[in-house]
Amino acid sequence: MFRAINKNISSSFKIIVSVTKRYKHIEHKVKVNEFDINIVESGKGENSVLLMPGAVGSSWTDFKPQIEQLPELLPNYTVIAWDPPGYGKSIPPKRNFDLDFFQNDARQAVQLMKTLNRPKFSILGWSDGGVTALIIAGRYPENVDKLVIWGANAYVSDEDVNILKGVRDVKKWSARMREPMEKVYGAERFAEIWNEWVDAILNIHEKRKGDLCMKEIREIRARTFILHGKKDPMLAKEHVPYLKQHLRGFKYHEFPDGKHNIHLRYAEEYNKLIANFLLEKC
Q1: What 8-state DSSP symbol labels residue 216?
Q2: Is 260 in the active site?
Q3: What is the pLDDT of residues 109-141, one digit of tens each?
Q4: Using one digit for the tens of pLDDT, what is the confidence trace for 219-269?
Q5: Of residues 228, 239, 260, 263, which has the active-site annotation?
Q6: Cα–Cα distance for residue pair 220/76, rounded to 1 Å
Q7: Residue 100 a catalytic site member
Q8: Domain extents for the chain?
Q9: The domain over range 27-279 is classified in CATH as 3.30.70.600
Q10: Residue 232 known to be catalytic
Q11: Which one of 83, 105, 128, 232 is the catalytic residue?
Q12: Which of 42, 48, 127, 160 is catalytic?
């Protein structure tokens, strides 16, 4: 009897080890054009989903629950999170905040996935990453399977400008929001890069009438899932209705008490919604 019990324990242990190995993440750098891009890969599925962080964000600051939990919900997917050039561990170079920085990120992301031999992929795009995701889906429709966005906007409104001016000074942020970024960049550099980003968005508002991807969203053919925190303080209320008006074939889910980081605050619910969407047959 004891031999049988030991055998069962041994089998269970092997299963646990097997599952752990399957979902363990691998972090490494990939040469994409002139950049050494830092990525985190989790899962071993044939399908691919790319996680695109928000402003000055990185794989771990923005997507830890998704890196750790999504592979179990999506066993036929490999989850890939990236640090865009100049963010996180994809430094050097110093981040370039010219008028085309969203478009540049879109181009580099597509090339990254081609370099990984995963030219067809789905995208989870949060905030700035959502803007880049919309550009990718509009400009490179042949490369995008499904699209998930939240906290994203197609243009910068006057209300957005006021919101940004209100959050420019990172010393006024809560420690919970500020400290993860300070661990990545250091307190001084984080304050600098955040101000550079704010200036870049204000520059787009002034010189391009706020246009981020208004043309691209009309070209999107991928099945799209819009999620939204109804109490999001970082997004002017007009943006979600605008996206609904101009995107075709979309699905929508709202978190009534959600703010900007619904994927972190409601990670378990969010991850299940995402997994169900990606597994749906269109």
Answers
A1: G
A2: yes
A3: 999 999 999 999 999 999 999 999 999 999 999
A4: 999 999 999 999 999 999 999 999 999 998 899 999 999 999 999 999 999
A5: 260
A6: 25
A7: no
A8: 27-279
A9: no
A10: yes
A11: 232
A12: 127
